Amino acid sequence: MRFGLLIQRWARRLPAYLVLIVCAAIVLVPLYSTIVDSLHPISEFLNNPPPSLWPHHPQWGNYFSHGGAAGAGTPLKRYLFNSVVVSSIITLGQLVTSVLAAYAFAYLRFPGRNVLFALFLATMMVPLEVAIIPNFQTMQWLDPKLASFLPGPLTTIDGYTGLAAPFLATGFGTFLLRQYFLTIPSELRDAAEMDGYGHFRFLTTIVVPLSLGAIATLAIFAFIQAWNQYLWPLLVTNDPHMRTVQIGIGSETQQLDKINIAFASTIVSLIPMLLLVAAFQRVLVRGIFGGALKG
Questions:
Q1: What residue ranges of the chain have pLDDT lower than 70?
Q2: 17 backbone dihedrals φ, ψ, rounded to 5°
Q3: Which residues fall within 8 angstroms of residue 129, CB to CB, at 6 or more apart?
Q4: C-alpha distances in angstroms, 268 versus 113, 214, 256?
Q5: DSSP 3-state of 293
Q6: pTM score, whole prediction
Q7: What are the φ/ψ torsions at residue 195 (nearest 5 degrees)?
Q8: Terminal CA-to-CA distance of the chain, rounded, Å?
């Protein structure tokens, strides 16, 4: 009897598992193909694309040799460094602006608050391509003005400032944290006012510690999104030394005699994001659903 119930339970779950398996295959097959292609020698790769599921003689030198993806003879380390710097600046900027804006929309009462919040939400519907030309014109206008007192790596064109500045604030981050802040009991605010807490002290000592899950979620999303940017870094960087990892790998794919190295570089650049998501998977789930139903 118990065995029959177990069979029925598995039979009900089987369609869901089949859908999950298909979705996982759609995601993992291109990744596996990239790994396989990165291990083929360039002669075999170009002359006769191999149909085998795994190379007969894996070329690990595509990763670890002097000219490999992680070797000293390639600029991948510089690309990775640039991506880490730019992604960190964007993440920090979005955390600061989102926390302050979300607190204002959650706890302060001022004329036009709902209208202004609706405008914040409307920015989430504007594609990057719509604002990319005005942003680039702004960076061009600021570049000669900032170049006189900023060092080269911090200028708006071919510099970290230009790569990060348009993304230091986000409507998504404000919405996410505002919804989470609304889940904090209002009695805490009343008690803090009775104890003489101002807004800034209440924010830093009570609201932020209670919202670390949502803040960590925003930080992970912001870092991954900044890491994967392609169009904007391509537009504002002409100096090869200031390229981010996505632009650097894209330039390598134009050289057919190094296409296997480019695939290896793609896998190397993917590893930090996989580790980040794997390490904070539970934080992501709790942060997304913790305040999603409030407000």
A1: 1-4, 45-52, 65-74, 149-152, 252-257, 284-295
A2: -65, -40
A3: 231
A4: 45, 29, 19
A5: coil
A6: 0.83
A7: -85, 5
A8: 47
